[in-house]
Amino acid sequence: MAVSVALLKRDPSSGAVTTVSGNEPLDLADDRLSTAVTAQVLDDATVLSAPDGVPEAVVHALQAAAVPAAFAAQPWLLHHRALVFENGRCVVGDRVLHYDEELGVYTDDDL
What sequence ranges are listed for the domain Cas3 C-terminal (predicted)? Predict the structure, then answer.
């Protein structure tokens, strides 16, 4: 069981959302992503799988989540969900996911 996700971050002061390695803001509700931003999202995308990488409940919650409009309009992103990390944390269901540039995505269970 797996789900494709785009790893994004939200700036706590401005609220702007970018990819984890980029700095160009993107609007998840806007169905007109530029080619450059789409490529950046794909570069920062990954697949989360259960039970190997994350708990099954996380994968189920992400699979049940809606595909953002910005992704639904892009053939390459059509099946991706958004994980938006703020200060390195993202809540999915009753779990907290963390993102670190070197470690990637992990849960508290991994610590």
Answer: 3-104
